[in-house]
Amino acid sequence: GLARAARARLPGVPVVLVTGDAGGLEAQALPPGVGVLRKPLRRDAIAAVVRRALAGTGAPEGVGA
């Protein structure tokens, strides 16, 4: 998808996906360091996932609710 294409073109670029249905995202393998935010968004979850993404540690387990 888009995250993989961005990473292929710009290795190491921080990626955070935002979705209303993260169930499908959790089931598939995401590239290392991709953060995921689930809607409805909360400020603390946004801040945490963006911080991890910028630090290079925004793994899928960073899903915020």
Structure overview:
Strands 1-2 form a two-stranded parallel sheet. With 65 residues, it is α+β, with helices and mostly antiparallel strands. The chain contains three helices and two strands, in the order H-E-H-E-H. It has helices at 2-9, 23-27, 43-55; strands spanning 15-19, 34-38.
- Gyration radius from CA atoms, angstroms: 11 Å
Q: Helical segment tally?
A: 3
Strand tally: 2
Largest sheet: 2 strands, parallel
Strand content: 15-25%
The average pLDDT is: 76
Cα end-to-end separation = 23 Å
Low-confidence stretches: 59-65
Which labels suit this protein?
globular; 65 residues; two-stranded parallel ribbon; 3 helices; disordered C terminus; 2 strands; alpha+beta
Quick structural overview:
The chain has three helices and two strands, in the order H-E-H-E-H. It has helices at residues 2-9, 23-27, 43-55, and strands at 15-19, 34-38.
Could you give the topology of this structure?
Blueprint: H1 2-9, E1 15-19, H2 23-27, E2 34-38, H3 43-55
Parallel strand pairs: 1-2
